[in-house]
Amino acid sequence: MRLLSTAQADDIRKALLVAERRSGLRFGLFVGPPEGPRRHFAERLHAVFGDEADDAVVILVDVAGRGVEIVTGAGTRRRLTDASCRLTAMSMATAFSVGDLVGGLLYGIGALGEQATARR
């Protein structure tokens, strides 16, 4: 089953690129069921950034499991607090709960990119 159209996927890729360019951080997004516990899987995805993990953000959206995880690297945490990530995740989940997957993703990526840029 396809969750996103080609145009929607392109919009999300553009939002990720804009967030990266503005903030100087690396952004990753995973939409789908996690392999194992959601948080653990998100942390494994974050580790894939390797040497860039300190300055990276991973957003995991488990649509079927109705969950969002945001993992940040050590350098990123100075600019994106746990509280701001929780608030962003809750806002995303609200959009998802009314069936707006793309809107929630675009909002979350944009909000995290803006917050990280403001504290740059």
From TrEMBL:
Classification from the root reads: Bacteria, Bacillati, Actinomycetota, Actinomycetes, Streptosporangiales
Please give the organism.
Nonomuraea cavernae
Q: Which domain of life is it from?
A: Bacteria
Write down what this protein is called: DUF5130 family protein
